Amino acid sequence: MSLFKQLWLAFICILTLVFGASFVVSSLSTKHYLEQQLFIKNSDNASALALSLSQQDADPVLLELTLAAQFDTGHYQKIELVDPEGKLLLRREDTDPITEAPQWFINLLPLEVSPGIAQIQQGWQQLGTLSLYSHSRFAYQELWKSSQQLALVFLAAILLSGLISSYLLSHILRPLGAVVSQAKAIGERRFITIEEPRTKEFRQVSRAMNTLSQRVQQALHKEAARLEKWRRDSQIDGVTSLLSREAFMQNLASLLENDNDNASGTLSLVRLEGLAELNQRFGHSTIDELLGDIGSAIRSMIGHRSDWQASRLNGSEFALIAPRTTDPESVATKLLNAISGALEARNMRKEVNLPCASTSYAYQESPSQLLTRLDSALITASREDSSTINVIQASNLPLLPVRDQISYWKNLLEQAFKEQKFSLDYYPVVDRERKLMHLEAPARLLITKDERLSAAVFLPWIKRLKMSAELDQHIIDLALKHIAVYNEALCINLSAGALIDPNFPLWLSTRLESTKEHSGNLWLELPEPAAFRHLEAFKRLTARVKVFGCKVGVEHVGHQLANIGQLHDLGLDYLKVDAFLIRDIDSNPANQTLLRTLCTVGHSIGLSVIAEGVRNLDEWHQLEELGIDGCTGPGVTKFSKLS
Amino acid sequence: MPPKLETARLKHWLAWIIGLSAVFCSLVLARVDLDRMQMLALQRYGQQGAETVSQWRLMIENIQDLDDEQKLDQVNRFFNSVMRWRSDDEIWGKADYWATPLESMGRELGDCEDFSIAKYITLLLAGVDINKLRITYVKAQMGGPYSKIFDAHMVLAYYKQPNADPQILDNIIDEIRLGSQREDLKPVFGFNSQGLWIQGASTPSLQDPGARLSRWRNVLRRMAADGLGYMPTTE
């Protein structure tokens, strides 16, 4: 029973006891009072009657008449006259039953009144003893009425007190709810802080927990900052503060392997022709400053588009990956403008030529192919007039106008939803004991019997056509059906579109409620950029699905390590580290340090850390040594199938 | 509920709380306790008062086995000789004050009702049946059969049989005579304490506010405090 109920019951018990006791005392004292009054009346009337009879020369007839008159005109139950020998001379009695109060009440509170007794004498001669009983029916009426009123008043008072006490209790105990949920949250490793309640005891408890939460938060932020610094040190080019070539290439490779909407986008390249001459003219340090300016111009152009990556590939080449963009020219123009802006600021624009090339990339293209294509386009561009953008497309990419592509995909996808042509593919994620943690299940679209489109191909269009929430619902349905049949844990990627769809959370709750017994096997994850961009929505969704035992995580972690600290109060279960940090981990000491710290930080707030895109056993072994909790990727699929 | 009940109830709650302990004490104290009476006499009236009470106790013991006639005679003579008549006004400064036997013996003074009460109680203590005793208001003709002076007076009447002519214990004359022989006395109303000790209560309704209002019950109550409480021999 809850504390509230117990206190309330105790309150009501005490009230009932108090009111009950005072009811009894009050009734008894009323009864006593009435008895006394009746006795005094009996005594006085008996004396008065006896006195008056003693004064008359009372013959038997006169005696009887007087007593009868007294009885008939007064309120008596009985008048008796007994002569000195004990013989009954006269008796008048009212035998009507008392109807003024119920019989049970009379039995419960009987009025015990002694008769008034007086002696009648004539001269020195005794005539008899007079006993007089007043009627108690009026007293019963009064007692009954007052008891009823009293009971009503007390009942009303108890009810009122019950209401007031439940209000007061809820007021007093309200902070307790907050304290309890904070304690629960910390138990789930969600380190939240709450406003300190005013009640002293509650305040002490919540202050202690707040302090704990704050320490954890501070530690997390510190660790996150350290992680970010390491990432910068190992991946950032010192001069431009852009990605180093190595990090950029890892990024590009992992993007092209990503089976999601990041796997298509645009890649742009700009070359500063004439940098060597400038170097000679202005000196090395000035040119470094210039490159720094260019770097910061590019970074401010990228701004909040956290998934865009820029790099100085070599001395004079700048590259920009813009996942999920479709227009190479406009992206390249942005890059070009940033660079030329920086040059103009130093009045050096005229000294250099800025050939620019841009292309779209697609899932599973090879990075070297892509760069070769761009390089040749850049050569063409540099032969032509300065600062033109040469857009080149891979020969196998559809060259339909955008409008036609949209209508093509719209038909295709609508058809797919109608005919339920989506399906799931399954890739194992295994833990340190090489046991299956869950299956990662990306979506597939069945085009013909043999041709299935991977998510990377159709997801950009799903997003563009604002079908994300619909697809996610569809996929979750498929996943829950699979779980119901095979009873194994399945992991689904949610999109930002679903996260911010106002109807999605409610739909999800209803859906999970309807398959409660399977919901615990559903893992849901969100890409890092979406998670941080919609942190509040993500927090709400997490709280919502946690009720059903779902696991929640973030995938492709690694680009915004400084933000990791913000995850302290979400109650997440795991992080999946992006493949670009995993690639060649066995030979990359900097990334090893980074991952080891990331694991420590994750574990401290109860998160499992899983590596994505593991390609071979060397990487896998190294990762296990670093404290990673689980691995997935082509290598894992291959070797776990073997075993 | 009528408002007059409210104050009564309040008072009674208080009375209940105080009364609970008081009742308990009075259960012990309000019995006949002649030692207590003796002690009070010494405290209030000194050696002389204590001596009188002591003599009185001795007399009660001595007459215990005698017949009623002799008890009447002894008791009547004892009080008529020990106490002298004074009006209430002279003794107490009040128009009408009913004294307890202790007060009467202590001061050795008394009005007619003080004589009657003292004799009545003493006879009860000596074992006389309460039904035979009546304290009686009489109209007394003062100064002989032809006197025109009448006075309100009180005597104690003893009825040997219920229908008998009673014997009258008076403080005006020492001799006990029959009612019919006392032509100077005209009885008006007789009473005793029958019916006042309710259901074996230790005192005549000590907690009952009515006891304070009635002069007769008031004196019974004060007597109980003096050590002359409920007398089991009386009914």
UniProtKB/TrEMBL annotation, chain A:
Gene3D superfamilies: 3.30.110.200, 3.30.70.270, EAL domain (3.20.20.450), LapD/MoxY periplasmic domain (6.20.270.20)
Entry's Gene Ontology molecular function annotations: cyclic-guanylate-specific phosphodiesterase activity
GO biological process, alphabetically ordered: signal transduction
InterPro entries hit by this protein: Cyclic-di-GMP_PDE-like, EAL_dom, EAL_sf, GGDEF_dom, HAMP_dom, LapD_MoxY_N, LapD_MoxY_peri_C, Nucleotide_cyclase
CDD domains: EAL (cd01948)
GO cellular component: membrane
Residues annotated as transmembrane: 6-28, 150-169
Domain EAL as annotated: residue spans: 406-643
HAMP domain sequence ranges: 170-221
SMART domains hit by this protein: EAL, GGDEF
Domain GGDEF: 263-394
Keyword tags: Membrane, Transmembrane, Transmembrane helix
Keyword ATP-binding among UniProt keywords: no
Entry-linked PANTHER family: CYCLIC DI-GMP PHOSPHODIESTERASE PDEB, CYCLIC DI-GMP PHOSPHODIESTERASE PDEF
Protein name as annotated: EAL domain-containing protein
From TrEMBL, chain B:
Transmembrane segments: 13-34
Annotated InterPro entries: Transglutaminase-like_Cys_pept
Keywords: Membrane, Transmembrane, Transmembrane helix
Protein name: Transglutaminase-like cysteine peptidase
